[in-house]
Amino acid sequence: MDLAMRMTMKLAGLWLAFGVTGIGGAGKKPLFEYDDHYVMLNDFARNAFYERALAAALPACGKGCSVLDVGAGSGLLSIMAAGHGAAHVFAIEANPDLAELAERTIERNQRNFPGANVTVVSQLSSRVQFSQLAQGRRADLLVTETFGTILLGEGALNFVPDARDRLLKEGGVMIPAGGCQYVTLIQDTDLSATWQPPEWHGFNLSHLRVLQDTVYWKAMVGAQKTSYQHLTERICVLEVDLYEDTSDSVPKNRTFRIQAKASGTIQAALFDWDIWSDVQRTEVLSTAPGSRNFAGDVAWGWLLQLQEEAGPDWKLGKRPSQLRVEAGDWIDLAIEFIARGISIHARARRADSPATVEGGAKDGARDGTMPWEVGSPSRIHSVDRRSMREANDFFLPVAGDRERHNFYASGIDAAVAELSRRNASKKSTLLDCSGTALPAFHAAQKHGMKSLAMPRWTHIGDVLKQVAQDNHLNRSVVEVFAADPREMFDILMPEGKRADIVVVEPPGTPLHGLSPFAVLPTVRKELLEADGLVVPGRACLELGLVESVELAHLFSVPGGSWDKVDLTVWNEEARRRGVLTRLVPYTKWLGSHSTLKHRWLSKPVCVFHVDLNEYAKVQPPPEETLSHDLEIHVDGLAHAVVTRWAVFSSGAEKLDAESDYLGRELTWPHYVQALAAPGTGPGVLDPIPVRAGEAQQLKLTVKQGSAKVTGSAGPEFTIRIVGADVGESEISSGKVPEVARVDDGTVGSKASEL
């Protein structure tokens, strides 16, 4: 009788829900809802593009020129327009909180355009009437920056044409005049290792590839250094004319016959775009890799969609099969436009010849050649979309992490040796709560240990069962059961008794949302022997001071201005929202593949230790305060405190955020808290100057309780750096944080669970 049947029988007459209602993790937005605007304000190429475009267009507009800014956001483009001579600027921003910030920003810059009248209206542009505009007449110029990572990802063609046709005069100027969505087929060995886990220690992991979502899921990889190679030219798959086009101008799909310019395996489609300032394309703004600064890459970035070979009927197989091409080969590339271009799907198939494109459509494309109902592959039919998102966001990148697997294998080997030393005749068992099941597979294969792996999702569990079969691990040795281990019964465990070893995730990592602090209290009480062992055995929180103007671009406007535009309102808002008083999770940006320029002024040191073999045996103190001296190793300016978790096995082996493997930085977060020097004005976040040889005093308060970041139990941390400025702040609820400058001159930080 398998575990699922035993579980069903055990629960007869009981009601118990094993469904997962939501998953926290790296996909959540950090800081607060306006965080995107900091990277936009620090996107110098974006700002310069609109500055030059407005400077070129407004002189010809004449006296009394009226400008309409659709989707005004921060108000920066409205300020530019007024500064270049517009008499009237109508800034439309539907978000009332954002509109209020824009209004404050415009007021603070009014001295630079005293003769201009700038009005902020918090309405959808579709509800604005031309009678509301200056002198009740239509505008002379419409400017908009309503583009997403996909060109039409923010739905620009759903509302800009309406504003153009109703609120812009005939013959009026559009900025930008148009744009183009580009696609390039690429090969990338970093991607291959991350989403196509190779074998590990003889384990055949090829079946995990059925978890790849090559249709709906996409990875945003801006500001990343990966080993991609263009196998085709960058081609325009959708050109948009903002003077003429509407949402009806976007086809359902288009097909392109293109030629491989290099030999390789098509692993992904790369999406980026260009926009141009006028019909002559005098100025071009691009999101192509390498065209932007760090903030611009974070703000827009570019997307990657995993690829597999489509059949002659455009359908995808039961199992992904990659398309290998030689230079000169012909490829059919089909582009499906979802919701009028708000989302885009690409798929490729082999073409036999450079057949003449039919119909002579613009861009050399054929409209409608891929049946719109071709749909998704059968392997993801009826699969919970959250499960597939979890698989592609976290599970596959973790499953491809060989260094991680080696660490866990070493920890299990050491635990088995310790158990054998204690009692050589005892048959030990293992409970794997790590989510990947590979620790359980290793224990079963190498040590013959009966093991139970417990992923959270049924679909992932079914795939792991097949992986076990592929590696000749039968159910008598290892079982896979998708459920929350906190809702498990000991009689359903291997041998019908408590486990001798339990494997848990490192703290802070987002796989299936269960940290060891959430799992261990229940597991230790119900499922682990009193003298059982935990792998990994120890964890620590590392902390250091970092210098990075680019990192500061994520949460502030360094210096409080761009060019001559006063943006101190945004730094004041960052303070009010708690940028100086809480740790914020960031994945990707501090890893080895990130383009972020930064340096550690103090080497990361362990400031809080956790013995996971003792955790939850006794109640920890509700609160404790630890003091540390951070030794400064190099002169510099400290912009932020950066923390991260590390774990250790029973030996000296360590696993942490440092790795050359792309998947590690996508799934192992750093936590960032901004710093400001003492006496810094409210609109400026000046970094703290430090000198080599000095020691920066740190006070760390640890509270046990409900997490503020991930929603699971565990320690929360209040960081206090002596002499740093915290300023005034309030959390999103509007309440002032329960921290203040204390008598010894230290500064409090809002508690955050990691």
Automatic annotation (TrEMBL):
Any one Gene Ontology molecular-function term assigned to this protein's record: protein-arginine N-methyltransferase activity
PROSITE patterns given in the database record: SAM_MT_PRMT
UniProt keyword annotation of Magnesium present: no
Keywords: Methyltransferase, S-adenosyl-L-methionine, Signal, Transferase
InterPro entries according to UniProt: Arg_MeTrfase (IPR025799), SAM-dependent_MTases_sf (IPR029063)
Region of interest (Disordered), ranges: 355-377
Repeat as UniProt keyword: no
Pfam families, alphabetized: PrmA
Signal sequence residues: 1-25
Gene3D superfamilies: Hnrnp arginine n-methyltransferase1 (2.70.160.11), Vaccinia Virus protein VP39 (3.40.50.150)
Protein name: Protein arginine N-methyltransferase
Lineage, highest ranks first: Eukaryota, Sar, Alveolata, Dinophyceae, Suessiales
